[in-house]
Amino acid sequence: MSTTDTPEKRHDLAAGLETAVGRSLANVDLVSGVRRLSGGASQETWSFDAIAGTHSHPLILRRAPGGTTNNKRDTAVPLATEAALIQLAEQQGVPVPPITVVLKDEDGLGDGFIMERIEGETIARKILRDAEYADARPKLARQCGEILAKIHAVPRGDIPDIQVSPARSEIDKYRDIYASMKHPHPVFELAFRYLEDNLPTDENLTLVHGDFRNGNLMIGPDGVRAVLDWELAHVGDPMEDLGWICVNSWRFGEIDNPVGGFGSREDMFAGYEAAGGAPVDPERVKYWEVLGTLKWGIMCMIMVSAFSSGMDRSVERAAIGRRSSETEIDLLNLLAPRKA
Amino acid sequence: MQDQPAAHDLVTAVREFLEKVAMPKLEGHDAFHARVAANALAIVERELAIAPMDNAAELTRLTGLLGHDGDLVELNEELCAEIRAGRMTLETPHLADHLWATTLTKLSIDQPRYAAYKRAIESTASLDA
Question: Which domain holds residue A23?
Answer without folding.
Answer: 2-116
